[in-house]
Amino acid sequence: MSSRQGQVDAIVVGSGLAGLVATYELTQAGKRVIVIDQENRNNLGGQAFWSLGGLFLVDSPEQRRLGIKDSPELALQDWLGSAGFDREDQDFWPRQWARAYVDFAATEKRNYLRKLGLKFTPVVGWAERGGGFADGHGNSVPRFHITWGTGPEVVRVFAEPVLKAEGKGLVEFLFRHRVDELILDDDGAVIGVRGAVLEPTEAERGVATSRVEVDEFEVFAPAVIVTTGGIGHNHEMVRENWPTQRLGPVPEHMIAGVPAYVDGRMLRIAEGAGANLVNRDRMWHYTEGIHNWDPIWPDHAIRIIPGPSSLWLDANGNRLPAPNFPGFDTNATMKAILDTGFDYSWFVLTGDIIEKEFALSGSEQNPDLTGKSLRTVAKSRLSREIPGPVKAFMDHGVDFVVRDNLPDLVAGMNEIGRGGHIDLQDLERTISARDTQVENGYAKDAQIMAMHNARNYLGDKVVRVAKPHRLLDQEAGPLIAVRLNILTRKTLGGIETNLEAQVMRPDGHVFDGLYAAGEVAGFGGGGVHGYNALEGTFLGGCIFSGRAAGRAAARRG
Ligand SMILES: Cc1cc2nc3c(=O)[nH]c(=O)nc-3n(C[C@H](O)[C@H](O)[C@H](O)COP(=O)(O)OP(=O)(O)OC[C@H]3O[C@@H](n4cnc5c(N)ncnc54)[C@H](O)[C@@H]3O)c2cc1C
């Protein structure tokens, strides 16, 4: 057992984005930090590296250039309408974090990041368009700003200064060290952490690693910041906390949108030591998951971030009720799907739709943006070709059926359906009825209306939403069906924290010495999103809460 005392000002557990931001802030204040992570150095930056780097900003120059009229008031109305905070105790801190975070996104956030070297692409995405009412869930306007360089760039701007601080001796990393226990003094304050040293590994980033223990360790410091992420890859915990009444029956088949280290262990450890966990039933999983044909972590799932035009059908071929259109209302769609008794659904679309409307979430799925090459981006985004990564899924993905005619498409769908049955005549009727609605520039079909509405926004018209056309139009390319699975990703609840990111105890008192930030703290407060997210708010939540934790811990001593 190695034991170290009195050498550093703070311990940060977890070297994901929240941990890096907290460490960056501590070192800016001249503090000495030990950063502990169960994975190896290849995984620096955690999940954020894999992300698309979408960031929620309010009334930004990028929005204004596209004619989008946004304001802090509109953003707060959207946030609160989406969050639906309704719990007196558990939502006490989340409500305050929500107001503070929307204010941050409308003021300091962009400059804070730009000073570190982060830039954004010019087209702002319109994610999570909502449930159909102005005061309900959803973004009234596009706010999803994609980082130039995607997730790796978000990581880089914090990792670089932290690595520089390592060079100066301010930061020490303990990789392959897994924290199993918080150490408390006689007054109940956290004074350190204890755990296991795991066997060394050269595994590539994201690959699941062994949990073989080769030693034990303990480290002491006046402040411990927990930034260990959520529960997304721990399907046992997801099932345990699943809100059946709100989201429908627990899906039997789930695939993982996060690496295996997003294991949720530290939540239980913190709770065992005396931290208050809140809003555990709030989670943000996606209904548009596809099995990665080239997996990196176990059960690796990729999320389609869809434009609004694909026809969305349940396992038996019935259209999902309005407004459960692609990209509108994640949780309502989840319930609509699961209430059918099946844990999958279908997109039916054309070559023209897939070419323009299928974005795949993940830095590795967007090599043009990740590689920061203007030429490649212009070529891939403005050309009339199906993007390479999407084409690879059409060719190799187990969820894709690509055929020249409807009877063959339906036969292919029925081959890979998990229990549901698609009737050819019924589907033909559904599609033909839908197709009658695209002849005019207006329609009574709510999805077609939504497509026209989207194309009123320049960004959508240019790169995101296909011109309305008949699905059975031979000129629109092959017919495509995609079997959509439930993909687990984000944890919206977690460790309760006050605005200083100090962990709270169940009795409402501060847990002295302990701080939490990032996904483990519900991105701030134990659930800054409430029930629903507006998207691009997770990386931002890690940055905002990591910054708060680092600054507060730095003020400590
Ligand atoms: C593919 C993908 C796309 C995404 N796209 C977006 C997007 O566009 N916009 C957005 O806002 N969000 C996005 N997200 C979500 C966002 O990336 C994450 O929510 C965020 O990065 C979480 O960061 P974190 O620091 O809280 O936790 P993590 O990144 O999970 O880091 C936690 C770290 O703690 C370590 N750890 C855990 N337990 C222990 C322990 N007991 N001892 C030691 N170490 C431990 C883990 O090994 C890990 O390195 C995406 C996520 C993924 C996976």
Automatic annotation (TrEMBL):
Give start and end of each FAD-dependent oxidoreductase 2 FAD-binding domain.
9-539
Q: Which GO terms describe its molecular function?
A: steroid dehydrogenase activity, acting on the CH-CH group of donors
Q: Does the keyword Oxidoreductase apply?
A: yes
Flavoprotein found in the keyword field: yes
Cite a single Pfam family from the UniProt record.
FAD_binding_2
Where, if anywhere, are coiled coils annotated?
none
Q: Which keywords does the record carry?
A: Flavoprotein, Oxidoreductase
Q: Matching InterPro entries, A to Z?
A: FAD-dep_OxRdtase_2_FAD-bd, FAD/NAD-bd_sf, KsdD_DH, Succ_DH/fumarate_Rdtase_cat_sf
Protein name as it appears in the record: FAD-dependent oxidoreductase 2 FAD-binding domain-containing protein
The species this protein belongs to is Gordonia hirsuta DSM 44140 = NBRC 16056
